Amino acid sequence: MKRMLARITAVAAATLGLAGCGTDQPPVCDSLVAVQTTMHQIRYASVSENGLSLLKGHLQQLKIDVGVLLDDAAEQFAPEVDEVRAAADQVSTSVAKARETPDPAHLSEVRTTLGALRSSVTGLGEAMSGTC
Question: How many whole angstroms separate alpha carbon 24 and alpha carbon 22?
């Protein structure tokens, strides 16, 4: 329940931050906010306090959120969507490797690929700035 309330609050706060254009935003704007919120949760998830299960849940949510964003943005922002899709695929691959061999090198790779995904989502957000 706390997690759901925190997510709703974060999404609401992020939406208010992006809502400068008014309330008649296309769905792609909400999809971007959802991805940004989940990326924020991943960045600040404390694995030492909560274990890997919390991070796993955030990564699963990120996969869903990215899928929705890519569907919503595919036509209008194709080049940026392709970059996000490639970065998301790299995250999936690095997470799979880290599951097989959870050593510092593979965990570092996950962190690196998440950084690349964050950068590509930022690029998409910048491209969408006139829309949202």
Answer: 6
Q: Phi, psi (5° rounding) for residue 76?
A: -80, -30
User: Domains of the chain: which residue ranges?
Assistant: 2-16+25-127
Q: What is the pLDDT of residues 80-90, one digit of tens each?
A: 999 999 999 99
* CA gyration radius, the chain: 15
Neighbours of 110 (CB within 10 A): 22
d(CA 35, CA 80) in angstroms, rounded, equals 14
| Tens digit of each residue's pLDDT (9 = 90 or more) over 25-34 | 899 999 999 9
Residue 78 vs residues 58, 73, 95, 107, 111: alpha-carbon distances, Å: 26, 7, 25, 30, 26
* Residue that the structure tokens 């997690």 belong to: 3
Token couple for 94: 């690095």
Burial 48-60, CB ≥16 within 10 A → b, else e: eeeeeebbebbbe
CA 126, 127, 130, 132 torsion-angle sign: negative
